Amino acid sequence: MNDEQNRLREAKAEINALFQNRYRVVAPIGRGGMGEVYLVVSNDQLRLQRAVKIIHKGDHAKLNAFDEVEALRKLDNPGVPHIIEIKQNDNAFFIVQEYVRGKSFQIIVKENGKVPEETVLLWMQNVAQIMDDVHSQGFLHLDVKPDNIMIQENGKAKLIDFGVAQNLEHRAAGSRGLFGSRYYTAPERLRGEPNDFRTDVFGYGATFYFLVLGERPLEIKANDEAPIIMMKRKLEAVQSPVIRFILQNCISFNPDRRYQKFSDIYADILQKDLYNQAVLNEERKRKSRWYGIIAMFAAGAVLMSAGAFQMHTARSRTYDSLISQGETYMADSNLKKAKHCYQQAIKLKKSEPAGYQGLYETYTANGAYTKVIQGIEELFSSKPAMRDSAELYYLLGNAYYENGDYDRAEYNLKKADDLEPSLEEHLVLGLTYCAQGRYEKAQQVIQKMRRDGNNTDGADYLSGQISERQGYQSDAVSDYKQVISETKDHALKQRAILSLADLYRKRKSFDDEIQMLETAQSEDAFANNIPIREKLGEAYYYAAENGGAAYYQKAIAQYRQLIESGFSSVQTYRNLAICYQKAGRYSQADATLDQMTAAYPDDYTGYMQRCFLILEEEEHRDPDQRNYAAFASNYRTMMHKAGDAASTDSEIAVLESRYEELQEKGWL
C-alpha cells in the first residue's frame, strides 16, 4: 500500500471518528501546503456532497491561519463556500464546507487558452461583487489567484480557499507569512507590510491579466517595479479600453495608485460600454487630419470631462435599474434577489435613500424587525440627511410596533406622517393605539380612513384587531376574512392572513388555520412568501402535537424550504430540528443542529436543543448502554454561551435539574 492510500485510509478513520460516521469519504480532491481536501457524502437520506478540508497542526504559521476560520463561519455570501461545521483532534483541524462543482480559472485557461474579453468581464464583474461583500463583512482573502476562483455549472463564480484569509480586526504586518503565489501577491505583502483591501485588488488584477492574456503574470518583486511595468506594456494587446483601464489601476506597484475598493471596479465594469465608446471617439478624433496639435493636447482633458459625465450618467441609470429590478423581485416575493439588487444600488449611491428603503422592506417582509431597527437607527445616526425620508421612518415605526415597543412606534410613525402622510402610516399608527389599549384613538383612525374613502380595507383590518383584543373573536374572524377576500393591497392581505392564522391557533382550530394558509400559499402572490411559509410550518407542528403525527413531515418540508431560501433564522433551524426529533429522525435532527451551530456559533439554543435530543436518544437505549458524555459536553457549552440568560431561561432550568439528577445517579 503506497503513501497516498495510507493517508486516505487514515483520513477516513479520522473523519468517521470525529463526525460519528455521519459522512462517507468518496475521494481526495485536493492537496496543498496546508493540508488536503476530501469529497464526502452525508450518510442521511439527503446524501449531500460536502468537502472536508484537513489542516494539519504542528506549524505555527498554519495555526495562525486557522485562527480566522471560526470568524469565517459568519461570512455570508453565495459566492463563498458555506462552512458547515469544524472539529479537531490532536493532529489536525477538520472543516466541513459546501462542495463546489465547476472548474477553476487555472484549469479553464489550461484547457482553452485565453478567455474572450466579454466573458472575462462578466466573470470578473461577479468576482468584484463577491470581493466587495467579503471586504464589507470585515475579511481579506489574501490569496486571490486563478486556482482559488471557480466557475460553477450555473456560470457563477465561487471564491474558494480562505486558508490564508484574515479578519481585518486582527491584521498586522507579516502576521501570516507568505502562503500566496509570488505571481499574484502584492509587492507590499512581500515586504511584510500590513494588508488591506488593496492587497486583494492586486491579486484580482493579476488574475484578470491571466484570463485575458492567457499567460501567467511575471514574478512580482518586493522592491522592484520592473515586472509590473513590463506587464502593463503587454496590456496593449487587450482590445477593450475598459479592461486596460481596470488592469492599469489594479496592478500598480504603489497601492495608493490602485482601486481603493471593489465597488469602484464593479461600477466601472457596469459602465464599460459608455467608457469604451468615449475612448473610441477620442481615438477617432486623434486620427482625423482636421485636428491640429492643440486639439491633440486637449484630448486628454476632453476625454476626462466627457467620460466623467458619461460615467456619472451611467451610474445613475444603473442605480435606477437596480431599484426597479428590486421592486419587481419584491412583487414576486423573491426577497433574496430583491435584497441583492438593493445592496448593489446602495454601493453605487450611498447618499440616496431608495436603496436603503428597498433593503429594509426586504427585512420587513421577512419579519427581521430587529435588523430593520438596528439598520435604520444606525443610518439616521451616520447619515442625518436620511431623516428626510418618510418611508424610512415608517419602516422603523412598523418594526418597533412588530417588536412590541409601542411608544417608539408611535414616535416614528408620527414623524413619517409629518413628512409625508400615507395610508400605511395611518394603519400602523392605528394598530399601535390598539396595542396600547387606546381604542378611542384607534377608532378615530378608522373613522378617518372611512371618511377619506381610500383605505376602507385598512379600516376593516383595524376593526378586526380591536374586536380581537376586546374579546369579540367571531367579529374579528369576519373582519379578517373580508379583508382577505376583497383587498388588492398585498401587504394588507398578508397582515390579515397572519392575524387570522394566529386567531385560529388561539382557538385550537388547527384544521381551519392550515386550510387557510395552504390556500394562501397556493396563490402566486404568496407562493414564496417567507412569513406565511413560517406560519404554515408552525401550524403543521401544532397540529402534529395535537394528534396528527403525519403533519411533522409537512412541517419539515416548510422549514427546509425556508432554510434553502436563505432567509432562515435561529428559530427556523431549531424548529426543523425539533420536528425531526418528534418524528424520530434523530440523525437528521443532529445534522440540522450542526448546521444551526455553524450558522449561529454564538447562540446557545442549538446546544440546548442538542441536550434535549441526546436525553431522548439515551432514554431509548437499555440502561447499561447509555452514555451521557455528549450531553455533559453540550450542556457545558450551552451554559458558557448563555451567560446571564442561563438564569432566566426556563428550558435551561429543566436541563440544570436533569444534569444534577444524572450526577446524583452516577451517570456523570
Automatic annotation (TrEMBL):
GO molecular function: ATP binding; protein serine/threonine kinase activity
TPR repeat residue intervals: 319-352, 390-423, 570-603
Name assigned to this protein: Protein kinase
PROSITE patterns linked: PROTEIN_KINASE_ATP (PS00107), PROTEIN_KINASE_DOM (PS50011), PROTEIN_KINASE_ST (PS00108), TPR (PS50005), TPR_REGION (PS50293)
Residues annotated as binding ATP: K53
Taxonomic lineage: Bacteria, Bacillati, Bacillota, Clostridia, Eubacteriales
Record has Transferase as a keyword: yes
TM region(s), chain numbering: 290-309
Matching InterPro entries: Atg1-like, Kinase-like_dom_sf, Prot_kinase_dom, Protein_kinase_ATP_BS, Ser/Thr_kinase_AS, TPR-like_helical_dom_sf, TPR_rpt
Domain Protein kinase: start-end pairs: 23-270
